[in-house]
Amino acid sequence: xxxxxxxxxxxxxxxxxxxxxxxxxxxxxxxxxxxxxxxxxxxxxxxxxxxxxxxxxxxxxxxxxxxxxxxxxxxxxxxxxxxxxxxxxxxxxxxxxxxxxxxxxxxxxxxxxxxxxxxxxxxxxxxxxxxxxxxxxxxxxxxxxxxxxxxxxxxxxxxxxxxxxxxxxxxxxxxxxxxxxxxxxxxxxxxxxxxxxxxxxxxxxxxxxxxxxxxx
Length: 216
Prior knowledge:
By secondary structure, the protein is α/β, with parallel strands linked by helices. It folds into two domains: 2-107, 3-Layer(aba) Sandwich (Rossmann fold); 140-214, no CATH class. It is built from nine helices and four strands, in the order βααβαβααβαααα. A four-stranded parallel sheet has the order 2-1-3-4, with helices on both faces. α5 packs antiparallel against α6 and α7 packs across α9 (203-214). The two termini are 35 Å apart.
């Protein structure tokens, strides 16, 4: 059997506490390994933000991949890193890796995924800061209560994705299948984004919407 090393990353406090993010990643990776005749000889669990530059666990993981001539298995590109430069450097380093959600992706597709992950992370950061600012404006005492505010925002987005699902299905049935085509037609038809107002759809926000719809 082919040798593989599994890498899992959990970044949020809630993910670390609940273990759900880790459990889902582990299940996906081990099921893929069993189907494709990989023997997982080691696994590394990282509790860091994907934007962090200080990554001793991933450094150790990559060194072990090279030492054992093993393939690195990850559940998604954004679980490896949310920095485009890191992912690009890894591809150049010669460590073979497979993202389970896109196992047959070529280098171009992986670069696009990494770029989307980086942009999405920055958007999440902006939205979080905006939510904190709004909570503070409303007089919410920041601390444990802010997680309730962010959890409400997450649930609001889940409801928004469910509302958008039939719209996206109809557009795809009419031939608007790529992220670019969907972005253009959503803007042309003035379909409201999650934030509302005059906010336009972008490739990254459509990409995020599709990922949420796929979880429904």
